[in-house]
Amino acid sequence: MYICLCNAISDKTIRNIVCQQHVRSIRELRDFVPVGSNCGKCIRQAREIMNEEIAQLSPINNFA
Ligand code: FES
């Protein structure tokens, strides 16, 4: 599913970047893809996807 229509960035792309590059913020994510660089409507959803993926990667969060 596309998260950023302006730049054709999918949720899968964002998840892969979070896993492989260990990004932890939208600013870091933007080092790899231009998410939110045009209309900005995708930022909120991109952040949700990123946070979801970070939560899955952090085993300590499973005990909270
Ligand atoms: S949808 Fe991402 S910048 Fe427009």
Give the helices and strands, then pairings.
Layout: E1 2-4, E2 9-10, H1 11-21, H2 26-29, H3 43-57
Antiparallel strand pairs: 1-2
The protein binds FE2/S2 (inorganic) cluster (FES).
FE2/S2 (inorganic) cluster (FES) is lined by residues 4-7, 36-42.
Order of strands across the biggest sheet? Answer: 1-2
How many distinct beta strands?
2
What's the N-to-C terminus distance? 29 Å
The CATH homologous superfamily? BFD-like [2Fe-2S]-binding domain
Q: In sequence order, what are the helices and strands, one letter per element?
A: EEHHH
Largest sheet: 2 strands, antiparallel
| Proportion of strand residues | 5-15%
Domain count: the total is 1
* Distinct small molecules bound, one entry per kind: FE2/S2 (inorganic) cluster
**In the CATH classification, which architecture applies?**
Orthogonal Bundle
Low-pLDDT stretches: none
Q: Number of DSSP helices?
A: 3
The CATH topology: Arc Repressor Mutant, subunit A
Q: What shape does the CA trace take?
A: globular
Organism: Xenorhabdus bovienii (strain SS-2004) (Xenorhabdus nematophila subsp. bovienii)
GO molecular function, one term: metal ion binding
Keywords: 2Fe-2S, Electron transport, Iron, Iron-sulfur, Metal-binding, Transport
Function: Required for mobilization of iron from the bacterioferritin (BFR) complex.
Summarize the structure in short.
Keywords: 2Fe-2S, Electron transport, Iron, Iron-sulfur, Metal-binding, Transport. This protein is mainly alpha-helical.
